[in-house]
Design brief:
- By secondary structure, this protein is α+β, with helices and mostly antiparallel strands.
- It has two domains: 2-91; 109-329, BirA Bifunctional Protein, domain 2 (2-Layer Sandwich), CATH 3.30.930.
- Helix content is 44%, strand content 20%.
- The chain has a seven-stranded mixed beta sheet with strand order 1-5-6-10-9-8-7, sandwiched between helices. Strands 2-4-3 form a three-stranded antiparallel beta sheet.
- Strand 8 (257-266) and strand 9 form a beta hairpin.
- 31% of the residues are buried.
- Bound molecules: adenosine-5'-[phenylalaninyl-phosphate].
- Residues 156, 174, 176, 200, 202, 208-209, 212, 214, 216, 254, 257, 274-279, 300-304, 306-307, 318 line the site of adenosine-5'-[phenylalaninyl-phosphate].
Length: 332
């Protein structure tokens, strides 16, 4: 029996060394320590011994069992960390790989345009503000002087969010609600731009997307006039597009500006691009934000960033700008 006990640790060592995986090791453990394994077999024989031998051999068996246990545990640790290393290596994705001679990626066209425009406006003394894409009715419409049942609410086809009461929460349809956030957050003078993503429930075509980008500009100060509005738009179009581009303002209607105008840009070839809307901030909007319209006046404009990017790079179709086709994107 003593020989059998001595063989237990030898078998454990040999079996553990030979096991190439956790399943093999489990089989070794079962053969030694399982219910029908070698240790149980020896234990069953102990009953036939006299008391002294039973104690002596029982003690030796107990020690051997502990050694077997620790040999198997050590090997199990080794095998499971190897298995883990192997699975990590096989699942590894190298997202940083730069292949010599291949472009390592760059900012999206629209992001480049936003960053450049931010530089232009920061150079003119403006700050940059942001607002949420999911808005409440008050910021997107009501505070902007859209009457509750005013047909102007239908000028922008709205995606409603199933939150709060009916039609209370919307995907913002323009960046103008950020004007409200800026005016309620800080006292005038205000010189801010607000770029961002906007959403409209519209069919897409070469000049319309359902998810697109706008840039809003807001100035509130003493003595601001329509001349400041026209001068600022002209300055940024010249800085961003070049001196060969010019602008035109056509009378229009927005509930939050009075007077209001459409902003068009003329390309060097003489053709026109409808870029956005603008006007003097409506006194009701200033009042809604706690700003005294007797003392302060302001102008605002907002335009389609994607359309501006399209004009600048001579892309024919807005849908291309939003495509994920790397052959298109890598041109910019
Ligand atoms: C507005 O969104 C007003 N908030 C603009 C404004 C701001 C007026 C401040 C006065 C003062 P409008 O709905 O016209 O206006 O949209 C402005 C511009 O966004 C459009 O001229 C166009 O360049 C762009 N745009 C509108 N709809 C889409 C669309 N579906 N896809 C791509 N660009 C669009």
């Amino acid at each position: 029996m003593i020989d059998e006990i001595a063989r237990l640790t030898e078998d454990a060592e040999r079996g553990a060394a030979a096991a190439s995986g956790l399943d093999d090791l489990q089989a070794v453990e079962t053969s030694l320590l399982g219910k029908k394994g070698a240790v149980s077999g020896i234990k069953r024989q102990l009953g036939g011994l006299d008391e002294d031998d039973r104690k002596r051999i029982g003690r030796a068996l107990h020690e051997a069992q502990q050694q077997v246990q620790s040999i198997l545990t050590a090997r199990r640790d080794e095998l499971s960390s190897a298995a883990r290393r192997e699975s990590l290596a096989s699942e590894r994705m190298d997202l940083t790989e730069v292949r010599p001679g291949h472009d390592a990626g760059h900012l999206h066209l629209v992001t480049q345009v936003i960053e450049e425009l931010e530089d232009v406006f920061v150079g003119l003394g403006f700050t940059v503000a942001e607002g949420p894409e999911v808005e409440d009715d008050w910021h997107n419409f009501t505070a902007l002087n859209f009457g509750e049942h005013h047909p102007a609410r239908d000028m922008q086809d709205t995606f409603f969010v199933a939150l709060g009461g009916p039609r209370e929460v919307v995907m913002r349809t323009h960046t103008s609600p950020v004007q409200i956030r800026v005016m309620t957050d800080q006292p005038p003078p205000i010189y801010s731009i607000m770029p961002g993503r906007v959403f409209r429930n519209e069919a897409t075509d070469s000049t319309h997307l359902a998810v697109f980008h706008q840039l809003e500009c807001l100035v509130v100060d003493e003595g601001i006039t329509f001349g400041h509005l026209a001068g600022t738009i002209e300055a940024f179009i010249h800085a961003f597009m070049g001196e060969e581009y010019s602008i035109r303002l056509r009378p229009s209607y927005f509930p939050f500006t009075e007077p209001s105008a459409e902003l068009d840009v003329q390309r060097p070839d003489g053709s026109w691009l409808e870029l956005g809307g603008c006007g003097m901030v409506h006194p009701n909007v200033l009042s809604n934000c706690g700003i005294d319209p007797e003392r302060w006046s302001g102008f605002a404009f907002g335009f389609g960033l994607d359309r501006l990017a399209l004009a600048r790079y001579g892309v024919a179709d807005l849908r291309e700008v939003m495509s994920t086709d790397i052959r298109f994107l890598s041109q910019f």
